[in-house]
Amino acid sequence: MAAIRVTVWNEYRHEKTNPRVAEIYPEGIHGAIAAHLRRAGSFEVRTATLDEPEHGLTEEVLEQTDVLLWWGHLAHDEVSDQIASRVQDRVLQGMGLIVLHSGHGSKVFGRLLGTRTGALKWRDDGERERLWVIEHGHPIADGLGEFIEIPKEEMYGERFEIPAPDELVFISWFEGGEVFRSGCCYRRGKGRLFYFRPGHETFPVYHHPDVLQVIGNAVRWAAPTPGAPAVYGRMAPIEPIGR
Amino acid sequence: MAAIRVTVWNEYRHEKTNPRVAEIYPEGIHGAIAAHLRRAGSFEVRTATLDEPEHGLTEEVLEQTDVLLWWGHLAHDEVSDQIASRVQDRVLQGMGLIVLHSGHGSKVFGRLLGTRTGALKWRDDGERERLWVIEHGHPIADGLGEFIEIPKEEMYGERFEIPAPDELVFISWFEGGEVFRSGCCYRRGKGRLFYFRPGHETFPVYHHPDVLQVIGNAVRWAAPTPGAPAVYGRMAPIEPIGR
Amino acid sequence: MAAIRVTVWNEYRHEKTNPRVAEIYPEGIHGAIAAHLRRAGSFEVRTATLDEPEHGLTEEVLEQTDVLLWWGHLAHDEVSDQIASRVQDRVLQGMGLIVLHSGHGSKVFGRLLGTRTGALKWRDDGERERLWVIEHGHPIADGLGEFIEIPKEEMYGERFEIPAPDELVFISWFEGGEVFRSGCCYRRGKGRLFYFRPGHETFPVYHHPDVLQVIGNAVRWAAPTPGAPAVYGRMAPIEPIGR
Amino acid sequence: MAAIRVTVWNEYRHEKTNPRVAEIYPEGIHGAIAAHLRRAGSFEVRTATLDEPEHGLTEEVLEQTDVLLWWGHLAHDEVSDQIASRVQDRVLQGMGLIVLHSGHGSKVFGRLLGTRTGALKWRDDGERERLWVIEHGHPIADGLGEFIEIPKEEMYGERFEIPAPDELVFISWFEGGEVFRSGCCYRRGKGRLFYFRPGHETFPVYHHPDVLQVIGNAVRWAAPTPGAPAVYGRMAPIEPIGR
Predict the structure, then answer these.
(1) Which helix or strand (DSSP H or E) is residue C184 part of?
(2) Best exposed site among B72, B151, B158, C194 by fewest CB in 10 Å?
(3) Where is the ThuA-like domain (chains A, B, C, D) (predicted)?
């Protein structure tokens, strides 16, 4: 089996302006995730960031990407409509997409789901999060325990304005009193999407082994399979009509 | 119970240029559907068309609409982005939306579902269609038999690029050899959507009693219920954090 | 519209042996729920209990029942297989079913869902529960706030062995660290099912106005609609075959 | 990756009494499917039949089975309740199950889905079937064209009394006028189920390359993945309660 080709996309702004974030992620959030995926083997990994030409997501890069990871927060509006459409099209043609944490508010995610995916509750107080595995037979849960525990995280709470997921893998419990649908699978066109909640930039969440385990599992789950062709447009009948 | 306020939107172009369509629908497709809903009672019905200012869908009209019906075909691109966004927003806030036949390719439907909803097979040969009831306990099937039979219709065939419906009520069989998911329910934000396939402009489909029965049922199903409030943004904890 | 005919079924054992339960529910859990539904109007309410002949669920009673509520706990095994099958059949033919709290372990619920629905976590320490509304446009959430808060309840925690619900309306947060899918809609055959988590016998949960509100909403949601007939068996073709 | 261990179960009665079936399947339906899977490689295949002790499905055999295929028709009632329960339990613990054709009426399938899965339309006139691929990115559709065409088959028609599938991969068109949900994915407990319609005993359907392709794909899809543990029962809190 050929290696899965992964592109880790990051807005890459917090790391340049907030020393705390820079300390946690000296190579950027994308760098930390890419390093993990490279260590995990069986992936061919590259990265791309907002401030590169075409945000690093040229036609050529996307053509060579099986699964795209997306982390953004401050600058969703700076992503050009053209690139957002390009990513959307590629997902519909089969590319996997994994949207991380504050990427919920991105153009890419909102366009693919059709709702105001930026709408949710939040609180940035560094509280305990427990992500319970709801579908314990799901491949995205491979190798986990009953739950993932993160000692300090930003809270996200329901109501989260998303379509009901095709598969709901994780539900989060937060110390302060909220719950959240934290692991959401969707199929759109020929592509598979996974939203995974954890990853506030001021906590070392992408160094947490269980979080990294989920990311690797999700890449494998979202990678395209050959499937069948889809043909659109005018079509001749197989049966004579109007006998 | 207050009457459900319905707005029937129609592109209203075929009727002005194609004498056959004008003959079938002298008051327009919107006129035929509106007349039926008025006869059915318990609805307050108005119509709106593409060539009116703001396509007839002002803020005020939408504020006073519980359920919007949408028929379009030739001129999806002439619907302004602003009005398409306005309709999308209203659906997410609770307005019901019923998309009819070639309305599958509309901006409104595509934005709410996130896929290329214009992508399907078709053949305009006037062939027999049978819409089988798949969920026979669904309120949208109230009062039907086991299937709806339409003697002459345009064919639409799979693959239809939509997200898997939350509820699949009808599947069509076509004489020429195809099948189609013809009655598709979705929930998006606070609103309910129903896609209903039949209704090619050159056949008298919106005079068919079963088709009109489904449209009335769907309006009742899609009408907003009070539900619960959704609050978004920063939120204080109910529990003290970090003990 | 004719009144919805409701039968509230209760095991009715705790109330006879535990003085605390008897004090909270002097007329039994079924009595408290029935009294609420009678006050709410538009329902015709009767009750039935385990120790009546045929558990109070004769063919005649079920024939005259639009929606059945089910509370059981200690004596799931004392429900006869014959009556469990009778209830299952009636649901498949269109009767609504609302399963409350420890009713998750009942024969009726297990047979309709096909999994070991008794399998979940629990802790009987009287802790705070918050049921968050996940689908805020759903009719079962009508009239609620953003969440229901219950000051003291038994905890139920995931993994709960159920098929993924067709619609997930509530997710519970518990003070002690767990989450739970607390409001689950299913369609089975022609019938609609709703599982609603709260209701441990030693706390006055069925006197809580929001809990009662949900029960009334759920009865309306689960009540049968006419739908369409389903015909099974050998069938002649509409088209000649093998031309 | 270890080979997937497959057990092909067949009622194996038609082959012994109907010379036409014996001619098509000299080694039995199970033999034909097993031979294909062996040729396909990467599977460890055994067979089991109704008239063996414990129907060939001892605890030991099931313990060593990753995916079970099930073909039955005449003798669903002869499958013992005990063995049906044993298979159901194993599926809930993670074993994949693929139910073929008339296996829809089996105890095993009915118990896992909770509905009268034997209820559907049928006609045994040897008509043309076209299975359209609805989810063209699904791994079960790998390697197919837009549809599978079977020149002569028994018809199955809707209404088919099943819960709405978690994923609907195929819809069949029949020459005589019916449609059918022919490829249905479910998750139950830790296990994955796939129902695949084709396979009437008097036509050489299990020699059709596309049908065999789907069966191989489905085995790979249904094979257990490690997932996460599920713990049930009483549980201590992580948070102190009732502060």
Answers:
(1) strand C179-188
(2) B151
(3) 5-222
